[in-house]
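[AMINO ACID CHAIN]
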Amino acid sequence: MAEIKSVLIIEDIEGLSFYLVKTFERAGVKGLVAGGGAQGIRLFQQEAPDLVILDMHLPDMNGLDVLMEIKKIDPNARVMIMSGDVELVTQLRQVMPAIEFIDKPIDMRDLFDKLGLARK
């Protein structure tokens, strides 16, 4: 698994975005935040982050549409889908087994373990 030096959080809940970015930055990972899908796609194009954490419910775009746009830009992009909708995640896991998922509320210890990062 490649080293993660930067992460793009695409999430419209500011408090959650801030928490995630600060937690990643304490682990030495550059954090970028987009509050919507269009902004997230632009930041992905500009910054080429090592990881994208993508919420499914965004104010301007459907998370799946954002995922497809990111994969058009870079088919090898590492994207983790974040959702508290258990039914949606269950359905997505069946049709997209190669995509990684994070359940809300987020367990940062579990997330960092999955990513091979040490919490500081």
About this structure: The chain has a mean pLDDT of 89. Strands lie at 6-10, 30-34, 51-55, 79-83, 100-103. The chain has five helices and five strands. The radius of gyration is 13 Å.
